[in-house]
Every structure is written in structure tokens, then in C-alpha cells.
From TrEMBL:
GO terms under cellular component: membrane
Leader sequence residues: none
Database matches in InterPro entries: AB_hydrolase_1, AB_hydrolase_fold, AB_hydrolase_sf, Peptidase_S33
GO molecular function, one term: aminopeptidase activity
Recorded family membership: Belongs to the peptidase S33 family.
Pfam families listed in its UniProt record: Abhydrolase_1
Region (Disordered): 59-80
Superkingdom, natural source: Bacteria
Protein name per its UniProtKB record: AB hydrolase-1 domain-containing protein
PANTHER family: AB HYDROLASE SUPERFAMILY PROTEIN YCLE (PTHR43798:SF31), MONOACYLGLYCEROL LIPASE (PTHR43798)
Residue ranges of domain AB hydrolase-1 in the record: 34-276
UniProt keyword Hydrolase present: yes
Length: 302
């Protein structure tokens, strides 16, 4: 097992192959299929305590990606580096094979890991991702929906734009408010959207905008999706795609991935946005729990 430093009853430090310290934790129990959860961003921190708690009989491993949250703020930042860090988490906890649950950018990361290391992955749960086509195919529709939703409540769009203009000049409190306003559009229930966004921002660890910009630029570069369809078609790992029906990222963007995968199930949760476990916890629990039982059964049959 790699170097471990306890920071809480179940909190641990994972040491990567290039010496960067990552925060990680294990929750849940039982003999169920182990799951590593990959949070969104990039440049954010683990916000997946809630979905992990919906699976109490599942050993769940959560972590802050490099440069984010409780992990060491140190690059380099790239998809390949993130895949290597994810493998360090797997090895740290002594997991031979694992199911991955990735959310948003974390869904991309989990898919990239499965494509690079299919023998180490029992299953993939792809939550609120954006598929395998070029970002330019869906991002304009997302941007339009973002500004429309942000403008539904008086003054919110103006406040967000003012904070955006301040950039690096924002105070920590202003940076948190900027994130809350931005995240509030990701929930279908507009009356509780800010409440949900504030919960995501508590505790506040600060966004790593350098990480976000660096990996974002990598994902948008010409040819970034070249060969993905063919690689997905060859993936012999069961995949569950989970979408919130009211996610402002167009759900048709995921059709490209669904069409390429040979072993895929897709669940659409009505009345839910980008964090579907928050607005339809029972639907999320049912879909993911059934998938994990199926993966475990496959493992028992091998």
C-alpha cells in the first residue's frame, strides 16, 4: 500500500508516482462491488458524498483530484495525469478490479481510465457526461440554456457577470458566490436551486482555475476526440449512463457514446438536473444499485 497519512477516521493520503499527495476516503461497507467515485470539474473537489451515501452497502472510495480541494495544489494537469492518479487511488486501497462512477468531467475521466485499463474495470457508471463528440457540437446549446436559466431570477445574471469580470480580483467570499450562482442553474427545482448550490460550496475549498483551464483547453483542442468512437466500440465493460432529464447540457450529446458502446444501459431521471442524485435520490439509488448487483453477479460468474 502506498504512503498513508490519516487526516480523519477514514481519510487517507494517496501518494502518486510523481510524489503528489491526494486526499481520499473510504465509506460504506459490506461485500458489495467496490466503487471509486470521480468528481466533476476539472479543478473542483469531491462533491459525491451524497450519491455514495445512497449506496450504504457498497464500499465507496472518494478522492480530490490533484490540485483540488484537500489534495496538493501541484500540476501537471492533463487527462493522462488524472488517469494515472486514479490508478494510484485504486492501488492505494488494494483494489484489483473496481467499478468507476464518474460525474460530469469525472465521467470523461472514468471513461478514459476504462479505455486505458479495461482489465481493471468491472463496470462504468457515466453520470451527466457529454458524450464523445467534439465539445463544439453541444456547447453552444449549453451556453444558451445557462444564460437563460441564470436570468430567470432577477439580478442573478447581472451579479454573476459582474463577478466574472473581476476575475482574479475576487475575494474568497466573492469567488464562492460566483460559483454558487453558476452551479444554481444545474438544478431543475428553481425554488431550491440556490440551496442545493450552497450545499455544494460547503465546505469551500476554492476552485483551481489553472487546472480547469489547462484540462479544458486539452479537451477542446482539434482532434481531441479522434478515435474515441472506435475505442468505445471495442470496450468490453458494462456501462450505465445516468442522465437528469433537465440537465442544461443537452442530453442528445451523450447519444454518441451510447451508440458506440457494445454493453450499455441508459437511465433518464425525470425532474432532475446535472446532479440527479439530489433531485431524484430514489431513482438514482435504484438504477445504480441494480447495475452494481449485475456487475457483482458477473464477477461471481467469472
Amino acid at each position: 500500500m502506498d504512503e498513508t497519512a490519516a487526516t480523519g477516521d477514514r481519510d487517507e493520503t494517496v501518494l502518486t508516482d510523481d510524489g503528489v499527495r491526494l486526499w481520499a476516503t473510504r465509506t460504506g461497507g459490506g461485500a458489495g462491488e467496490p466503487v471509486i467515485l470521480c468528481h466533476g470539474g476539472p479543478g473542483l473537489w469531491d462533491t459525491l458524498e451524497e450519491p455514495a451515501a445512497l449506496l450504504p452497502d457498497t464500499p465507496a472510495y472518494r478522492w480530490d483530484q490533484r490540485g483540488s480541494g484537500r489534495s496538493q495544489r501541484s500540476g501537471p494537469y492533463s487527462t493522462d495525469r488524472s488517469v494515472a492518479d486514479l490508478d494510484a487511488v485504486r492501488r492505494h486501497f488494494g483494489l484489483e478490479r473496481v467499478t468507476l462512477l464518474g460525474h460530469s468531467w469525472g465521467a470523461r475521466l472514468a471513461l478514459a481510465y476504462a479505455l486505458d485499463h479495461p482489465a481493471l474495470v468491472s463496470g462504468l457508471i457515466y453520470v451527466s457526461g457529454t458524450g464523445i463528440d467534439d465539445d463544439s457540437t453541444w456547447h453552444p446549446a449549453y451556453k444558451e440554456a445557462f444564460h437563460r436559466k441564470l436570468g430567470e431570477r432577477r439580478g442573478r445574471r447581472e451579479c454573476w457577470e459582474e463577478l466574472r469580470e473581476r476575475g482574479d480580483g475576487r475575494t474568497e467570499a466573492e469567488d464562492r458566490e460566483y460559483a454558487i450562482l453558476q452551479w444554481s442553474v444545474d438544478f431543475a427545482d428553481r425554488d431550491r436551486a440556490r440551496e442545493h448550490a450552497e450545499a455544494m460550496a460547503t465546505p469551500w475549498f476554492g476552485v483551481n482555475y489553472t487546472c480547469n483551464a489547462t484540462i479544458g483547453a486539452e479537451l477542446r483542442r482539434p482532434g481531441a476526440t479522434h478515435g474515441l468512437r472506435e475505442r468505445c466500440a471495442a470496450l468490453r465493460v458494462p456501462v450505465l449512463i445516468v442522465d437528469g432529464e433537465d440537465d442544461i447540457r443537452p442530453r442528445w450529446s451523450v447519444d454518441s457514446l451510447e451508440g458506440a458502446l457494445p454493453d450499455v444501459t441508459r437511465t433518464m431521471l425525470a425532474g432532475a438536473g446535472h446532479m440527479p442524485w439530489t433531485e431524484d435520490p430514489e431513482g438514482f439509488r435504484t438504477a445504480v444499485g441494480a447495475f452494481l448487483r449485475g456487475v457483482s453477479h458477473r464477477g461471481d460468474s467469472r
